[in-house]
Each structure stands twice: as structure tokens, then as C-alpha cells.
Amino acid sequence: MKQYTANHIFSKDDQDRQDFAPQFTPWELPITSVSTTIIGGDEVKRHQATQIGEQDSALRMNLDGTWQLAEEGADADRLHGEWHDAIAAQVPGSIHQALVAVGQLADPSFGTHAALAKEYSHRTWWHKYTFTLDDPEAWKRGRLIFDGVSPSCEVWLNGHKLGTHEGSFGGPEYEVAAQLQQQNTIIVKVHPAPLGNEWNVWHSAIVFNCNYGWHYVNLPAVGIWQSVRLEALPQQHVLHPFIAVHSVDDAHAGRVELTFELAEMPLAGDRVYGWIELEQGKGKIAQAPSQHSNASKALFFEWQSSDANSLTSTDSGKYTVRMELTIPEPQLWWPLDMGEQALYRLTLACVRAEQAISSVAVQQTTSMVSRIETTFGIRHIEMQPFAEGVKSDEYKWTFAVNGVPVFAKGTGWCTLDALMDFRRERYAHFLGLAAEQHVNFMRAWGGGIPETDDFYDWCDRLGIMIMQEWPTCWGSHANQPRAALEETVRRNTLRLRNRPSLVMWCGGNETSSELDHEAMRMMGRLAIEMDDTRPFHRTDPLGGSTHDHIVWNGWTPAYSFDYYAGLEDRLLSEFGLASAPTMESMQRYMPIEEQQIWPPPVGESFYAHLPAFDTRDEMRILSEFAGSFIPCDSLESFAIGTQLAQIVSLRHKMESARCHWPQQTGVVTYKLNDVYPGVSWSTIDWYGVPKPSHYFTADAYAPLAVYVLFKQLNSPEQAQHLPVYLVDEQGVCNGQAWKANVRVYDASLREMMHHTWEGASDGTTGEVEASQAAPQSRKLGELELQGYALEDSPVLIVSELYNGEDLAYRTFYWLNFDARPGVLFDLPRTELQWTPLTDAHSRANKQEYPDPVSEAESERYPYAVRVANRGDQPAVAVELYHTGSTPQNYALAKQQFYWLDAGEERIVQVRSLDDLQVRAWNAGASLGNYTNNPVTAHEPVIASKANAHPLHHQKEE
Predict the structure, then answer these.
(1) pTM exceeds 0.70, yes or no
(2) pLDDT tens digits for 382-400?
(3) Nearest 5°: phi and psi at 478?
(4) N or C, fewer C-beta in 10 Å, the chain?
(5) CA distance 651 to 818
(6) 149 burial via Cβ count (<10 Å: 0-12, 13-18, 19+)
(7) Can you tell me whether residue 188 is helix, strand or coil?
(8) d(CA 59, CA 181)
């Protein structure tokens, strides 16, 4: 246990640790050092076969696939009668997915269908599956394992009731050797979702609650949503391997500690063999052998039962082994934009010697070998205090990875789908887009789930750090079933604790009461007793982090924009503004006849896809925000207006926080994704299509950037001093010649002001003020804006950075818009042209969701196009888009909504050339159709001045 000196200042972390009163940690048991041997990568499988034979002698049978599904019915009829009313259902999956697949339920994501679909959530659903065992005697240690059933269930095998289980996130598990036979039938009775007040009815269960109607769709998930399997392990086997480093020095030296459990007391001659390999061919960690001499090799080690000093019995009757070993030439795991995400694979094989088997009475089905695998990363997490130092009422809120402090470029993660479509490729798509935003930190928040293995696997490989909150909100832990909540914590801690991307546990979302409840102390205690390599916070916000939801305060949009821009919270971990998705996405969930009606009819499709169904006056509030940019008189203007309002609400705080490092240690927007299609706070909609805020988030989190900070966005008459900062996380500009430009334009796109700061290749920085306390950011100076009459005031500001002769970064801002809605779309017109540079047939990419790790950017966006501004005015917010009728579920291009100077060109990689067009705020949609009229590199597609952007307001001559 940790010891403190007499003059130690107790942070909230320290106080919580004492209050949780852990009885032990995994790292206090007796330990032994083991020697290791390096073997060639090509020899690993041969070496394993020599030590343990060709195969794992454990038996496993996957029971996923097509089950029977039936609604309601008496227990006796379902257990013993025929299911003439059954339909086919895929497991894993939800009952709603099955009903939609067979045509018994209309798509719940469309129109107002969710209300009808909800009725099915509150019914009992029976699942049946039959399977055959060739040799039932071989399964005498068989266990039936469910990885997730929501919300609760009862289980029978061959007519024998195995038990009842509560809680959606793991379990139940049953010993079934006595019930197994050659022909077997599993029957699962899935109980209805709780019905009642959406704000607290889910307190009676352990579920993900963001689909219970308090904020998003009211459509509780029901079904066997995770895998089912039959498993028979040898009498002696390895459980729960856990590998970690405990200091920065250990990480850099490759010194790791490993603990694992043995199912029973080892007999003489029992051994555990281990292999550690750097994973190859799976994304960023694959390195050429010339760079890393051990990249294609494996580390071998061995533990023997004669080493009793490292063996400790547990209360559960198992035995824990703890050892230390050194991985030569370690490759560390780093967060995104800081380095590689090196991942290792640990394989442990437990071998019971022949003489040990013959010396005791062992059933014939007892096997000699079992093996288990896990991935891990070599990385150390330490929480350091804010710049002001340790305080007794604050957590330590500065992340340090491998000894390097990290600014948390964060966003919130919402459960991927209300009806549990958790396909691995969907995770890949959304998390790949998060990486394109340069997000390195996410809150997997308490309205959702203890996230899946696929989620964490992608985060490990992409370098996205995760704060995992347990599935509680607003003090619900005090009322939720205690045993089920504890089982959830225990199961998922064991499942996730090897994940390098997992950097913090949290007790739940926005709990202001019951912080000292025993259920909360249970969660904190288990975080130490079962892990103790990452911090635990009781809730968020707490102890230095804050949330801000001023949208509900009734303030004017103009005041709200300035408020967000001026926020000085040191770790703002939830804030934002809702916006509509793209028009194409809204058209996917609204009937055609409703799309032309404005304002939309109350109670119909539009309102069914609003946050909280407009119970908090969202429609009026968001329409006012949209009206700050354009007259809000149509569905399309509402979409564009709210999207611009979302950008303004998010970006200025994000950029300001980065510039004020280390006083501000992170910022976390709300949120990345959606559980259901609609108007929401996300930057990527439920279909997987980015909103404009996605691209400005990428600008705000870019590793290298120049930012202009604002306090007032709509006060043209007042003079302002606008600080200008260079942010350089990776030291790209150190010792390099660079130049930062800031340009100011009025509504006629006349350049009103231009200021330049330069750094020389010898390291001198001219008038730059370099901050010793904040090496990632430095103030270049200030832009002096005098007061103007509204009609003469600045509208657009461009900031850019040249590294040598190359344009390394550019973004643009808009201001003084609120008093003249539509000014951004009444700019002088220009002419855009796009030209394909890639043969459309040579780079076809058929995958719906490309792999964001192993595929290069050129594979995810396989077509190159040249976008050129052929006019004599800058092009503002240049965007490539589709005009076809086929809906898209992806990002069309990595770069969108950018600034092109007059005569400037940019090469852009895109996902598809089908029906491609180009536009900007001041350049209209191009003519023609690429699919029907193929365009070669010599036949550019043009967006002309005459073809106006859909929101361009033609001025009277």
C-alpha cells in the first residue's frame, strides 16, 4: 500500500484512496524474476509446438448464429411445446434487428417508427438454439458462457433451468457438464426492459440508459447482444493475465510485471510457458527489422511450480503468480500524434506434466495443455496536478504518458447504436474519423456501456486514450441492483485492464449526490484491488473538471458564442451545442412530404429526432442559433445555420485551451457520435457522415497550428486585441524556418489587414514570446482590430503557417455575422473547378468501412482530385459533395470546408468520384454528373459564379 510522509499534501486522489480502503493490490504479492530467451519470429510456432504440442486441448464451441425468436408465451409452452410463431434471429443482436430483418417491424430509425418499436422492448422474448456434440463425454468440464444479455434473463439447457441473471454487461455463466448430451437445446427467456419514467426507470437495472428517452430516442435495447459459447478448460489452466509497468524508467527499460491466476494448486512438474511478440502487419506498429532488431522476434519465458515463492492463494480458491521480466529494446505505446502505438501479444500456456497426471485421480477429460492470449502495450500513465500544484479538493488532472505531459484533445463517446449494431467495422469507421480529428482522449460516458473489445482494440491501435465510466448517471448507483453492478465492475475490469488506451476509470456521469455511497466506494475499491495502474474518479465533473450546458440558460446566441470563446475552465470535460446532420442524412429519416414543410409539424418526424423530443424548448433555441447566420426559413437553412453555430460554440474554447497549456490541461467536447439519427451534439451523425464541425475540430486539434483567440465575435464597433498563438506539439518548427500569416477580410473580400511572424532556421523567433512553462504553445503577438461600423467591419480572418515553403496549416474564422444574417453566403462569387487525377476503375474500394489503421490514407481515400479556384476572389469553405441518390455512410474527403486563395489549387484525396461536385459559400454547385458523364483529367468539372450555393441570397442589382 502507498505510504505518505508527514508533510504530504493530500490530493483528492489520495483522499479517495484512503476512503476506498482497499485490502490489497495486484502488485503487493510475492514476486519472482524470470529469465528470458529471444527466439526468431519464424521459429515461434515451431517453438510453441515443441513445448506444448500442436493444439490447445481446451474445447470451445461458438454458439453465435441463427437462433429462433418468439414473443411472449407461458413458460411451460415455450419450454416443452413447438414454436410455430418463431422467426429467425441473429445472435449477437437485438430483437428489434430480427423483427426488422423479417419485415415484422418498420425501420425504427425512420420517421416516428421508434414509438412503435418501443412497445416491443417491454415484452418478453424467448430465444432457442440447438447444437450437437459428437462426444459429450469430452465436455465434462463444460461451461455455458454468455457475454451479454440485456436487460436480464433466465436460461435453460435441455429442460434444466440453469439460473436467472441480471445485468447487461457480461454473464451469465453456468457449469453444464451434467446437462450436456449429444443433441442440446438452449432456451433463453429475455425479460422486458423496465417501463416507467424515463429519468429513473432504468435505475432498476444495469443497462445503457441513453436510449431510455431522457435525452435521445426512447427505445430500450433488448436481446442477446454479445456472443455465446460453450467452453471446457482443463482442470489446471491460466486465468486473467495482467501485465503492466510501474514507472517511467521501467517503461523505457522494458521492465514489466505479470500476474495471472491458476485454477488450482499446481502439482509438481506443472509449468507455465510464455511468449511475447511484437505484433506485425497490423497497422502502425509494424516496423522494418533494420529499424528494430527485435521486431520479428519473440521473447520466451517459463514459470515452474517449484517456484513457490511467487505463488499466493486467493479467497476464491485459486492461486496467483506474480513475476517480473524485461523486454529488450522495448517499443512504447504512445497516444495519437505523439508516436507509435506499439502493441505486444502475450501467449501463456499451462502444461500439466505426464507424471503429475498419473499421480492423482484425474478424470479422463482432463487435458494437459491450456493457453490464453492477450494484447498489451508498454506505457506508463501518471496523473500530475494542475499548474497551481496539488490541492486537497482537486484530482490531479494532467495526463503524463511515459513521463511526457499530454494535452487531452478530447470528445465524448456515445454508445454506437440504440439497437446494438456493434459491428467491428462500424467502430473502425467512427474511431478512424476520431483519429482524423486528432482526438487523443474520449469519455466513454456513464449513459453508455463498458465498451466492447472491438472498441478498445481500435483505440489501442489508433492511440486514443479512454476514460471508462461505469453505467451509472446522476447518482443511479445508489439505487441500481448492487450485486449486478459489482459483477459488472469485476467482469469488465478483468476484461479491459490490459488495454493501453484505457487510462482512467470513473464511477459514472454527473453524480452530484451519493458520492459517498457504498456502491461508489465499491467501484473505487475494486479499481485499486483489481488494477491499481490507472486512476479512479468518483464521477465527472468533479475535482477540477467541469461541464457547461449554457444552451439551456436562455441567453442570446451572440452572448453564448462570446461566453464559450471566453471560457477559462482548466479541464472542461463536457460542452457543446446541438446541430442538424447533413441534409442528405435528414432526408434518410424524414418522409418526403415532411421535408418541404417549415416550420416542421409538431409531433412528427422532425421532432421525434430532436434532443429530448423538444421537451426543453430545443426547437426555439436552435432556430435562434441558426438565425444568427442565415434566415431560418427552411429545413436546409436550419441545418446549415445550426452546423455553423455548433462550429463557433466548439472551436474557440478548444483552441484557447490548447494555447493556455499548461494552465489548461485538456478540453472534451460533447460529443463524437450518436446512438440514433437526429439533431444532436455530435460531430459525426449516426450514419457515419461527418458534420462540418468534424473538419473544424480537426483544425482545432491539429498538432501544428496557428490560432487567433477571440473574446467577442459580434462587437464590430469595439476595438479588440486578438492574441495569436503558434501550437507545435511535435516540435516541427524547432530549428526550422517558418512563417505565420494572419489576414483579415471584409464582406467584399477585400484584405483589410495582414500580419506576419517568422522564425529563423537558427532557432531565433523574431518578436515571438516563447513560454518556458508551456513548450507546446507560444504567443506570437496580437492582432490589433480597431472599431468599425457594421457594414465596414471584418467578416473573415485567415490564419496559416508555412514550414519552409510548404503550407503546413490553414484555417479561417468568421465574425460580426449576428446582426446581418446571410452575410457569409453573400460574399463576392468565384469559380471552382475539380479535376480527377486517378482512374476511377483502377482504385475501386468496395469496403463500406475501410480499416483506419492498416490501410494508408490513400487507401481510405483512394482517388485524388485537384480542386482549383479559377476566379479572382478567395473561395470560402470549399466542399466536395455527392449529388447522387444513393445515401453515403462515410466521409467523402479528409479535408473539407477550407479556404482557397484566388488562383490557388489543392490536391484532395476522396473516397469516391461518383456524382462528385464542388461548391463553396461563394461558389455554386457544378453542373454535370460524373457517373453518367465521365470526366477525364482534361475535362474539369466547374462550379461557376452563376450556379449559386443553395444558401446564396442573390442581391438586387
Answers:
(1) yes
(2) 999 999 999 999 999 999 9
(3) -70, -20
(4) C
(5) 17
(6) buried
(7) strand
(8) 15
